[in-house]
Write a structure and sequence with these properties.
This protein is α+β, with helices and mostly antiparallel strands and 136 residues long. It has a domain at 47-133: GMP Synthetase, Chain A, domain 3 (2-Layer Sandwich), CATH 3.30.300. Helix content is 36%, strand content 19%. The protein is built from 3 helices and 4 strands, in the order H-H-E-E-H-E-E. The longest helix is centred in the last third of the chain and has 19 residues, at 91-109.
């Protein structure tokens, strides 16, 4: 193997190891959330999430919301992923958005929040804006 190919191969292996985020720790650090979900996502919401957001907006919900995905999180609690065009990360705006979405999902979609819920909100660039673990 020529020296250039050898260095290229070593660089690729090194990058792969670095990007994989390998660690010898088996448990998350105490301050780190163990809630599922990415810290960034595609700016394109899945079709079912777009359809749910359309129903939410038609019922008077926030016009910036273009995706709401419902799935089952740890222990079966609802995991909600929200995509918004609003880049404002203000806590008050998040609280209003959270209340609006939860109210709609409980009232119109039959969502039960008795055991709590998890919510991730992603902004227009796909970056995580808010992550909330509202389990008791």
């Amino acid at each position: 193997m020529n020296p250039i190919a050898r260095w290229a191969a070593l660089a690729c292996v090194g990058c792969a190891a670095l990007l994989s985020g390998c660690t010898t720790d088996s448990a998350p650090s105490p301050g780190r959330s163990v809630a599922p979900g990415p810290t960034a996502t595609s700016t394109v919401a899945p079709d079912a999430a777009v359809q749910l957001a359309e129903r939410y907006r038609r019922s008077g919900g926030e016009s910036d919301v273009y995706g709401i995905q419902r799935s089952s999180g740890p222990g079966g609690v609802p995991l909600l992923i929200v995509w918004t065009h609003n880049s404002d990360e203000d806590a008050e705006i998040f609280d209003d958005l959270k209340g609006s979405i939860l109210g709609y999902l409980e009232r119109e979609e039959g969502l039960s929040l008795g055991r709590g819920y998890l919510m991730d909100v992603f902004g227009p660039d796909g970056a995580l804006q808010h992550r909330l673990d509202a389990r008791p």
